Every structure is written in structure tokens, then in C-alpha cells.
Amino acid sequence: LDRPSKKMKSATVDWRDSKEAKPEMEKYLKEFSAAFVKHIQDSYEWPSVGVERLHKMLDYTVPGGKYNRGLLCIWTAIDTCKMRGIDFAAIERKAVILAWCVEILQACFLVSDDVMDGSVTRRGKPCWYKLPEVGLDAVNDALILESFLFWLIEQNFDGKQYVALMKLFHDVSLKTQMGQMLDTMSEKAKGKPGIFETFTMKYYTRIITYKTAFYSFYLPAAAALIACDMTSSETLKACEAICVEMGVKFQIQDDFLDCYGDPAHIGKVGTDIFDHKCTWLLVIALQMASAEQKKTIEANYGNGIEDKKAEQVVKDIYKALKLDTVYEKQETDSYAKCMSLIESHQKVLPSETFVRLLKKIHKRTK
Length: 366
Hints:
Elements: H1 18-43, H2 48-61, H3 68-84, H4 92-117, E1 121-122, E2 125-126, H5 138-156, H6 159-187, H7 195-198, H8 201-227, H9 233-260, H10 263-266, H11 280-288, H12 291-300, H13 308-320, H14 323-344, H15 351-361
Antiparallel strand pairs: 1-2
């Protein structure tokens, strides 16, 4: 890839200011997307109709999110450079490339998820597969997105960094795909004999660790460490331990907000009960409920979006069991556990990154 123009050089960008960082990130994305399309056009002698389609798909599916994962990658790189006495400007471009690799993987997952879930909108516009000219071609587009991120790594990294990044992204992709498989299986298990016996805390934690924690927390942080030449297994294992714990905390919060959050505040209407999701609230309720309450939950859980009454029956049992109080304790305990992990690894990791992130998500309301 060509070096960015002077205008795009971002030595003065405050990457910690999301409002300033987002447009700067999008400038880089335009450059990376154009380079990828040119590669396809030149190397494959691609026809103009295919070039236009590729441009449109990248422009529609990759930008437009909050970029939380990408920014976490950049923030981790900044703090790691500070810890190691390195000038961030020397690796800034690599950090932004990896930030976009994380975001492109997210786009790949979202395009696939929307098809599987039959979703209608994504980021305030129709899902990509919902466009009449796209349809199930979106499945192939998701694979192209994954190839795009690996092409970016191949073009910009070599040696130990290249090997470590390829291993990281392949490993996290597989873990996320397996987590997604377990999650969708639980949604389709309504009515299966003994299904609620399988919804244990161990089963639930496995789903959310693999489906959410690895790619949302560990991947961006570990990619940044590798960009700073911190590729030892000890360092990456320490990073994984902290990030998985924070990812689990984050998903438990999501589960709680899906049921207890104000839709106007969180920006969506909760559907976990309708969808027969294996959630933290359900698992805790099954641990605490009487035999009669368990029967009632089983009869009313996952009855579909039309059955609002059934959802309320489940919510009333959650209320009777005082799950909001149990959740408050979980929030406090998980904070202490995360802080303990951060402190125990502060010699090998930039603790500043993880403390800041933990404080940002602790007791969040949306």
C-alpha cells in the first residue's frame, strides 16, 4: 500500500477522542478499500461491473459502526508504546490497519448474522442481503470481507508479526464461529426435552466467551500488542485472561439490559426471552427457581415475539427472584475480579488500557 498523503498523516489526531478519531479512521478505510479493489482489478483483470459491485459492497458493509473494537486496538497500541518507551508515530499506521482488520471481521460476522437471523435493518439502513440485487449473494460477500482483512495483513506485515497476526485472526475467527453455533443452537432448542438442564453457567459462559469476548475484547488488544512486537505466548495469554473476563462481564450486562433496560435509552427492544436465548438471567433463574417456577419459565420462554404475555410471565418470575439484586452483586464481583487480573499482569501489559476500559463498561446502562 502507498503511504498516506501529508493530509492524511495524523500526528495531531487525538485517537482517544472518538469524534475526531472516527472520520480519521474512515479516511484510511477509503485508501485501504481502493487499494484492495485495484489489486483485484489489476491482478484478476476484473471487469468493470465486478469492480463496481465490490466497491459498493465494501462501502455499504464496512463503515458506519461505532468502531469501538477498532479504537480499542489503537488505544492499546498507544498505551503499549508509552509503557515500552516507543514513539507511537512509528507504528501508528500499523495500528490503524489492524483496527480496520478487526472492524472488517466484525462486518463479515454482521453480514452473515443478518442473513441467519432474518434481520431487517443494520446501522440504520436495510441489511445488505435485503437489497434486491444482493439477496443470498451476501454469503459470498461475507467471505470476501474476510479475505480483504487477510490481504491487508499480508500487504503490511512480515516476519514474526505476520505469523502471529495470521494465527491470531484465524484462531479468533474460528472461536467466534463456534460460539455463534452454540448460541443459535440454544435459540432453536425450544421444546426439546431436558434443554433447560443443559443451560448451566458453564454452558452459558462458554457461549459468550467464544461468541463475544474473544473478538470484541481480546482480538483488538492482542493485535495491538503484536504491532508493538509483543508476541510472546506469556504476554498474549495474560491479555486473553483479562479480556475474556471483561468480555464475559460485558455480555452479562447486555443480557441484563435486554430485559431490564429502557428501550428508549438502550436503542433497541429486548428480544432474548422471545428468542429462547441462553442468557445469564435465565441461567441464574433456573438455579434459584422452585420446581413450579421452572415449569412456568419452560412453558413461557421462547414463545416468539407475538406472545407478549408469555414474556411478562418470565419477567415476573425474574422480579420475584430479585435478579436485579443478584446482578448488582455480579457487577461488583466482576469488577474486583477484572481489577485483580489487571494488577497481576501489570508488569507485562499496559494496565492503563484495561483499567480505562473496565471503568468505561462498569455499571453501564446502554
